[in-house]
């Protein structure tokens, strides 16, 4: 059959009519037959309104185009499946009723042949074309590609119907649109066709009547039978073909309903398949723009049933939303101007009764969206700047709040337009801002927090909430707050209005991409340092916005908005956008930018302080109220600054450069609250070392010292500040120069608060520990107090206070009530004098007294060396000294005459020698350090002047091997011999010293003895009676021991022996041992010191339940040794 040459003539047999009348279900063979033959018939209908496949298929007049397409494109099986079933989809509309219609129409068409066939089964069918079957189910459908467009556009029933080839469908739809637009009226009318067939035109004729008339006339005028009837035959044939074609259905010209379907189909394609279509430039703009323009000019626009303008504007939106290429193409085709005309036309008819389903509202939504997308492109925005009517129309739309979705779309458009600074100004001047602000109060945050699933279709409040969020975004973009993709130019005018109307805190929240938080704040009551917001402020703002919206006299006046201020805020001090009173009530509230707030506070304080200075210079009594107001504001600002520093670590560094201001404010004695506030502020700032360094550079410590005395209730705070500051050497130097030592001594001596006294002592010790200025500080303290107090302050301030208040009598301190009163009074006198000077000039320098103001707190007759009372030390040499090494050096200097000689020189020398011997006896290791100090040579030089004291010291030094080694290197025998010869009463101690020296087996000493003829001299002493010596026997024993020790010298021993043997006296002592005459004690018997006792500040008895002992020995003194541990 495939190769049968007669196949193209099958239709002449009527087989396609007969086969489609089959009512059974076994249609697959029929489908296969139809698939094989339907496109190969020589039949070609003259119907320009049909698609190519319908013109080429014999079934085009019988079946819907979708069925023919299924047969051709999907095969017989798929066709049979649909032919037997019921389908109502965008790709297939077919059911039993349509099959029944098909059978009925075919049966009616061949009704004349049926009786003939019954009477003669071999009768041949005289073929006559059947009129195109019109199915009621497809009455308003438009088939394109493989889809029924009305069903495809029914997004309710078929929301996501798949489109396998969106690009091909778009092309076919564009072609269909072109054909529909270019469609012309048919060549003849139905009446003319009826007239050609000889039928009356008054009523529509049924198909059988038309067919019979045609059949009769065709036979009559067929050229084969009637050569003269050719013209008439062609006229009859054309009339019948017209009545059989679909042209009779299509009406006269383009069908607007079909155009709407074409437009909506394109919108669906661009919406669903934007990624696929994005690379393609839209080719339908000329026709689309023309359609919009024609519809806009139509006076009956809003009376039409077909929403052609709505569909066109929607397609325009989707095309530009899909691709930037399309937006630019729309602009080049002058589409923006045409859209604005349609937009203005539709906006003009909006009113308070308009509904979202009306054409005008839908067109406004679509065109607004189109402008929103187009505004993303610079060229389009430049064009919109010239279209001032656009912003005016958008502002009018926002007046109709009941059209929430339209207002939301308009708000989105305003947000998009705000990317251009010129459009921003248009938006401001046309009053759009007031509408957007009003939308913020339609927000219901409880709906967001409810957790209930909701949609905009079912919940109108959800639309209002979205509108409020969009308004926040639009406001942010108008002011230029947002960053990233939504960044826009900064608009200072808009920001000024926001700061005034919404407060700076809420305005700054526009920077965040979280509108919910901002909207919740505006629609609830709030009182925090950033915002005072309640029903009254909301009402006040709403009334203001209503007035601005209704104002038509001067809509461009924005000054009143920038000057707007709430009644609740008028009496509040606002610095850096923060309500100072509220912040001081809620100091732990988190500040968003604490450093910036601190800077604002500092600038405010500086300006107010300068303002006070100008007012004081004017001496105008009328300024008194203003002055009090400024002082009140300064106190509040200082408290806020203190709270910022206290709750935000690291912010104190912002105070650098302002400490001169702080300390100047500290001297405002007439305003105590300010002084207390700035004092706490300084205390917090001093925790930062950089701030301390800046204070040091400012040289303002005098103000703090004045406050230390004037603010008695804040003395502890002042001391704590000093404690932080005095860790810097430069500030120690300044504090010393400006009298800090004097003020601290006053508090230490005269304060009634133990903690203040202890902290004062600690600060004095801290100053004294400074490497550069410490010695001067200790010297200054020593001008008023015994040295022991300075050391006690260093080691234990608490013990130092107790020591000051109790009575003491020990080698290092003699202290009683009288001494305490005298010292305290003198300190007060000096302090008062300097304080008066410093009040006049905070930078005044304190002059240190030239000498001790209290020469001796004890008996003036007491001898003091190195801070030690010699009388008491000699009587108690076991006392644990604080600085034994320094005491030793002082004793040596005193003894050897290196210091100024007092009037009682003899007594001092004697006591110094006794004290030195007692010290070395109690702490023998101290003697090892004497040679390094260079005292040994001076000792022997001084021996001629002070034989008694120097020999006594030599006697003690002879016990140290290090000292003996140093003595060996010094010319010692001649001075010692001369001293013994000049002062007979020291012979005993001198001989003992000689015995100790020669026992060290130092050859150099033996040589010096020989050179100085010490041996003959000693032999003469043995021969004499030694009447002036206290213990002659022991002295002679020491001489014998010394001579025998000299004999042991390897170098000079023989010479000594020869001298001794030549003397007859030596024979009497040579062979005898004299050890029994020599005592074991290292201290000569004539010393009255007695047995040393172990005592000290930590071990002696208590007085009044409080320790009277000074601090322990200097830990840094290597020569300090506890006697009680020996």
Automatic annotation (TrEMBL):
<feature type="region of interest" description="Disordered">
    <location>
        <begin position="1105"/>
        <end position="1126"/>
    </location>
</feature>
<dbReference type="InterPro" id="IPR001623">
    <property type="entry name" value="DnaJ_domain"/>
</dbReference>
<dbReference type="InterPro" id="IPR044978">
    <property type="entry name" value="GRV2/DNAJC13"/>
</dbReference>
<dbReference type="GO" id="GO:0007032">
    <property type="term" value="P:endosome organization"/>
</dbReference>
<feature type="compositionally biased region" description="Basic and acidic residues">
    <location>
        <begin position="1113"/>
        <end position="1126"/>
    </location>
</feature>
<protein>
    <submittedName>
        <fullName>Putative endocytosis protein rme-8</fullName>
    </submittedName>
</protein>
<feature type="transmembrane region" description="Helical">
    <location>
        <begin position="12"/>
        <end position="31"/>
    </location>
</feature>
<keyword id="KW-1133">Transmembrane helix</keyword>
<dbReference type="Pfam" id="PF00226">
    <property type="entry name" value="DnaJ"/>
</dbReference>
<keyword id="KW-0812">Transmembrane</keyword>
<dbReference type="GO" id="GO:0006898">
    <property type="term" value="P:receptor-mediated endocytosis"/>
</dbReference>
<dbReference type="InterPro" id="IPR016024">
    <property type="entry name" value="ARM-type_fold"/>
</dbReference>
<keyword id="KW-0472">Membrane</keyword>
<dbReference type="InterPro" id="IPR011989">
    <property type="entry name" value="ARM-like"/>
</dbReference>
<feature type="domain" description="J">
    <location>
        <begin position="192"/>
        <end position="248"/>
    </location>
</feature>
<dbReference type="GO" id="GO:2000641">
    <property type="term" value="P:regulation of early endosome to late endosome transport"/>
</dbReference>
<dbReference type="GO" id="GO:0010008">
    <property type="term" value="C:endosome membrane"/>
</dbReference>
<dbReference type="InterPro" id="IPR036869">
    <property type="entry name" value="J_dom_sf"/>
</dbReference>
């Amino acid at each position: 059959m495939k190769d049968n040459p007669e196949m193209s003539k099958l239709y002449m047999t009527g087989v396609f009519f007969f086969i489609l009348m089959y009512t059974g279900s076994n249609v697959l063979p029929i489908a296969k037959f139809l698939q094989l033959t339907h496109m190969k018939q020589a039949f070609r209908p003259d119907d320009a309104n049909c698609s190519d496949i319908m013109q080429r298929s014999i079934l085009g007049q019988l079946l819907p185009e979708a069925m023919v397409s299924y047969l051709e494109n999907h095969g017989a099986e798929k066709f049979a499946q649909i032919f037997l079933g019921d389908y109502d989809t965008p790709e297939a509309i077919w059911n039993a009723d349509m099959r029944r219609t098909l059978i009925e129409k075919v049966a009616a068409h061949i009704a004349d042949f049926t009786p003939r066939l019954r009477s003669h089964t071999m009768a041949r069918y005289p073929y006559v074309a059947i009129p195109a079957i019109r199915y009621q189910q497809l009455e308003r459908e438009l088939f394109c590609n493989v889809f029924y467009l009305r069903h495809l556009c029914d997004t309710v029933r078929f929301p996501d119907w798949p489109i396998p080839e969106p690009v091909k469908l778009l092309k076919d739809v564009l072609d269909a649109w072109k054909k529909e637009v270019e469609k012309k009226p048919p060549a003849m009318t139905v009446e003319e066709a009826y007239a050609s067939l000889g039928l009356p035109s008054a009523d529509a004729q049924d198909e059988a009547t038309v067919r019979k008339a045609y059949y009769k006339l065709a036979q009559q005028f067929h050229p084969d039978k009637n050569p003269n009837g050719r013209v008439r035959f062609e006229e009859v044939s054309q009339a019948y073909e017209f009545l059989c074609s679909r042209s009779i259905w299509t009406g006269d010209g383009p069908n607007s309903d079909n155009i709407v379907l074409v437009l909506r189909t394109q919108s669906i394609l661009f919406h669903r398949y934007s990624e696929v279509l994005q690379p393609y430039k839209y080719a339908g703009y000329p026709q689309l723009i023309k359609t919009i323009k024609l519809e806009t000019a139509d006076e009956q626009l809003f009376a039409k049933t077909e929403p052609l303008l709505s569909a066109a504007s929607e397609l325009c939106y989707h095309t530009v939303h899909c691709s930037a290429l399309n937006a630019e193409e729309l602009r080049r085709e002058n589409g923006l101007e045409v859209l604005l005309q349609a937009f203005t036309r539709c906006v003009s008819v909006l009113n308070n009764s308009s509904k979202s389903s009306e054409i005008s509202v839908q067109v406004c939504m679509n065109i607004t969206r189109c402008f929103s997308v187009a505004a993303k492109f610079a060229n389009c925005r430049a064009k919109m700047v010239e279209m001032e009517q656009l912003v005016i129309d958008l502002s009018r739309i926002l007046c109709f709040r009941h059209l929430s979705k339209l207002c939301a779309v308009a708000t989105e458009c305003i947000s998009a337009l705000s990317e251009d600074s010129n459009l921003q100004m248009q938006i401001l001047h046309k009053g759009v801002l007031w509408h957007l602000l009003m939308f913020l109060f339609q927000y219901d945050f409880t709906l967001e927090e409810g957790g209930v699933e909701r949609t905009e279709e079912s919940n109108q409040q959800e639309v209002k909430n979205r509108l409020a969020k969009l308004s926040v975004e639009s406001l942010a973009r108008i002011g230029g707050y947002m960053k990233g993709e939504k960044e826009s130019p900064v608009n200072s005018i808009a920001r000024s209005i926001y700061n005034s109307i919404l407060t700076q805190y809420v305005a700054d929240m526009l920077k965040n991409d979280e509108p919910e938080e901002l909207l919740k704040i505006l629609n609830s009551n709030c009182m925090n340092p950033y915002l005072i917001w309640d029903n009254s402020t909301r009402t006040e703002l709403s009334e203001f916005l209503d007035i601005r919206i209704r104002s038509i006299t001067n809509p461009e006046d924005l000054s009143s908005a920038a000057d707007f201020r709430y009644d609740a805020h008028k009496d509040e001090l606002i610095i850096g956008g923060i309500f100072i009173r509220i912040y001081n009530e809620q100091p732990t509230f988190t500040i968003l930018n604490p450093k910036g707030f601190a800077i604002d506070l500092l600038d405010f304080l500086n300006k107010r302080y300068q303002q006070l200075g100008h007012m004081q210079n004017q001496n105008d009594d009328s300024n008194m109220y203003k002055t009090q107001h400024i002082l009140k504001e300064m106190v509040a600002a200082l408290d806020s600054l203190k709270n910022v520093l206290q709750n935000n670590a690291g912010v104190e560094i912002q105070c650098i450069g302002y400490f001169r201001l702080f300390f100047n404010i500290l001297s405002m004695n007439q305003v105590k609250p300010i002084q207390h506030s700035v004092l706490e502020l300084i205390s917090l700032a001093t925790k930062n070392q950089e701030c301390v360094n800046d204070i040091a550079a400012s040289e303002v410590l005098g103000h703090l010292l004045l406050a230390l005395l004037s603010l008695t209730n804040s003395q502890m705070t002042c001391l704590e500040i000093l404690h932080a500051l005095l860790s810097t050497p430069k500030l120690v130097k300044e504090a010393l120069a400006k009298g800090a030592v004097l003020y601290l001594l006053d508090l230490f001596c005269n304060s009634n608060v133990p903690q203040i006294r202890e902290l004062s002592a600690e600060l004095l010790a801290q100053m004294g520990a400074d490497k550069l200025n410490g010695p001067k500080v200790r010297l200054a303290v020593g001008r008023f107090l015994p040295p022991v107090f300075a050391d006690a302050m260093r080691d234990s301030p608490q013990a130092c206070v107790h020591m000051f208040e109790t009575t003491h009598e020990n080698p290092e301190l003699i202290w009683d009530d009288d001494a305490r009163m005298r010292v305290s009074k003198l300190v007060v006198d000096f302090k008062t004098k300097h304080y008066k000077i410093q009040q006049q000039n905070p930078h005044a320098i304190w002059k240190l007294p030239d000498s001790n103001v209290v020469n001796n707190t004890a008996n003036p007759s007491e001898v003091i060396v190195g801070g030690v009372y010699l009388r008491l030390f000699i009587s108690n040499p076991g006392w644990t000294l604080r600085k034994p090494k320094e005491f030793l050096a002082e004793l040596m200097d005193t003894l050897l005459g290196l210091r100024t000689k007092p009037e009682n020189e003899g007594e001092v020398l004697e006591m110094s020698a006794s004290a030195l011997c007692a010290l070395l006896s109690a702490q023998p290791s101290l003697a090892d350090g004497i040679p390094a100090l260079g005292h040994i040579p001076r000792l022997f030089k001084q021996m001629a002047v002070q034989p008694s004291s120097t020999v006594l010291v030599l006697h003690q030094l002879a016990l140290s091997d290090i000292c003996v080694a140093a003595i060996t290197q010094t010319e010692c025998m001649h001075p010692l011999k001369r001293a013994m010869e000049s002062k007979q009463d020291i012979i005993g101690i001198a001989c003992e010293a000689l015995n100790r020296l020669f026992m060290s087996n130092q050859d150099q000493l033996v040589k010096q003895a020989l050179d100085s003829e010490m041996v003959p001299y000693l032999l003469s002493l043995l021969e004499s009676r030694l009447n002036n010596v206290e213990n002659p026997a022991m002295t002679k024993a020491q001489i014998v021991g010394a001579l025998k020790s000299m004999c042991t010298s390897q170098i000079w021993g023989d010479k000594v022996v020869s001298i001794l043997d030549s003397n007859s006296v030596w024979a009497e002592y040579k062979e005898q041992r004299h050890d029994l005459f020599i005592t074991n004690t290292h201290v000569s018997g004539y010393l009255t010191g007695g047995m040393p006792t172990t005592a000290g500040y930590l071990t002696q008895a208590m007085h009044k339940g409080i320790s009277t002992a000074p601090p322990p020995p200097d830990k840094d003194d290597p020569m300090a040794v506890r006697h009680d541990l020996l």
